[in-house]
Amino acid sequence: MSPKRVVVLQRPVDLDDVQAIEALDSMGMFGTARDLPEQCSRALDTAADVPLPAGGPFQNIVVTGLGGSAIGGDLLRVYAFTCLDIPVTVNRGYTLPRFAGPRTLVLAVSFSGNTEETLGAYNEARRRGAAIVAVTSGGQLAAQARRDGVPLITVPGGIAPRSAIGYLFLPLLMLLDRLGLVNGIEAEAAEAVRILRELRIRYDLEAPLTENPAKQMAMNLQGRIPVIWGASTTTEAVAQRWKGQINENAKAPAYWNVLPELNHNEIVGFQAPTDILHRIWLVFLRDPDDHPQVQKRFAVTREIVGKVVAGVSEVEASGKGLLARMFSLIYLGDYVSLYLACRYGINPGPVEVIDRLKSTLAKGE
Ligand code: PA5
Predict the structure, then answer these.
(1) Distances (CA, A) of 352 to 253, 297, 348
(2) Which domains does the chain have, with CATH numbers?
């Protein structure tokens, strides 16, 4: 017989009780969310003086990292789709794809600097003679990069990796801007910062539930299985970010996918088992630049699955540039995941399971 599981029922926190939320949030996750616009401004400077890697012109870019340090790579890949002439691949593992070699720019990203998979991929990049830039707040990656004379973007530490999304994404873009591979990043980032400041007023703790779309969305997701659907080339990486934030902050399951692909498989899987389907809440991430056929697909998809699930929410990106539009949706998802943690009475900061896995693997057990 399998051992009996102990279920701890935590008390939901009232989303308008700022004191109770701050008491629960031991790592100050709401504070770092509130600081995101300023983090994004500071992030741009971190890549300003870093020596540019030799070895160009590059044939491809590989961003290697895990979890909160990899999602910036996904955002970069989506951003690059329309404006970069060379492919961006995101690598989540110990080794590198076979194509990576002397004409590859490897961006090795680890917030802590101690993630073993990223250190493995970094060493592999060295062996293959790739150009490398390391992005980290310290740890072994910083030490190795200094020792190897590899350009190093140092970002401030002291927060959770997933809270450092500005530091782990924007410096990569700035670097590509300085390499002449993309342009206009500073102006786009300035718009993103402005939009984030506007949205902060709507999503932060002081905005009451009756007027706060992030709190309202968390109430809808409570007790449900969030399924986040975005679209290829616009909101794809943002959907993945929402999922990860719900997992890590609210310690709850969540899933993501993209249109049009999901219209060719996942959409069929909404007939059984009905008791589980009734507990799914779909969130559609909409972007004004979605392909016109994708916009139609969102509408038809809603007709097909809308009645089977508990509910569907559609949220629209704000801003003109893609950077602002991405960050506007990221910000909503970040706040939603934090409020959902509160509804589950869960401290959003610590991720004990990840820490335990890392230390077990490091000990070689
Ligand atoms: O959010 C987290 O804590 C994780 O997803 C980490 O980002 C992941 O484990 C990788 O660690 P690091 O970002 O320090 O390389």
Answers:
(1) 16, 39, 11
(2) 18-26+192-343 (3.40.50.10490), 34-183 (3.40.50.10490)
